[in-house]
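Subject: for your reference before the review

Hello V.,

The reviewers asked for a structural picture of the protein, and I figured it would be easier to keep everything in one thread rather than splitting it across files. Below is the amino acid sequence we used in the manuscript, unchanged from the supplementary table.
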Amino acid sequence: MKKYMALSIIPLLMMPFFAQAQQIFTSPEQASTALFEAIKRQDDAALTSLLGDNWRDLLPPEGADPAAVARFLRDWDVRHHVEQQDNVAHLNVGKEDWQLPLPMVKTDKGWHFNMQGAADEILTRTIGRNELAAIEAAHAYVQAQQDYFQLNQAYAQKFISSEGKKDGLYWPARPGEAPSPLGPAFSPAQPGMGYHGYHFRILKAQGADAEGGEKQYLNNGKMTDGFALVAWPVTYGETGIATFIVDEHDRVYQADLGEESAKKAQSLTEFEPGDGWQAVTP
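And here is what came back from the structure prediction:
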């Protein structure tokens, strides 16, 4: 299975217009070697020639991640090759065949790095990684609820416990104390932030299309008759596309709710995998 390298030296998600006077090469192998040499020497002028005048705008405020740079250089020494399909080529490095999100394209003049194509690839990969993380988080939520039930004979109705209590899936553990069923990431401290680009909310009922039919999970104020969850992108089309729901049986469904994903997801009151929802296969 091909691996994709999210090289933080070149995070192209919000990429401005690039100058077109980029260096041209006779082959994608030659272009790849020039990129390697520029990164190895930390040669800003060479990177400008390769990637365009505005490549510095793409770096995070603290600069390139030294660990990512070291990994790229190490993987290059282990193995590197160019994978070409027609007039588009990619550089793969390392034993696991990591592929850089920097496509090289051939024009009448020769080969050069396609920066707009790189931005599109990184966005696609980011969305894919976030969606997989949301699915994994949904499964973790199910396990956490099951663990919580063993302690309380009821399911948790919130992620973060009240101060000094253990009434949610997460609470700070004291030294020597067993950890809480779930970590704090589902409810970030800063408003608007998500977990891997997704927000999460506990559902306390299910609809007619769910197994067992329509019912409330609450019984005399306690959630004893089941549990569910909805997860939606922080920013539709940038951090994710699909919205996910999961029930107590660990069955995950997905749907594309469009530009109003956040509004629609937040209006959900029950787990209802009806029309428009598709089961996510393991």
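For the response letter, the relevant points are probably these. Helices lie at 28-41, 44-51, 66-78, 115-152, 261-267. Confidence is low (pLDDT under 50) at residues 5-20.

Happy to draft the paragraph if you're swamped.

O.
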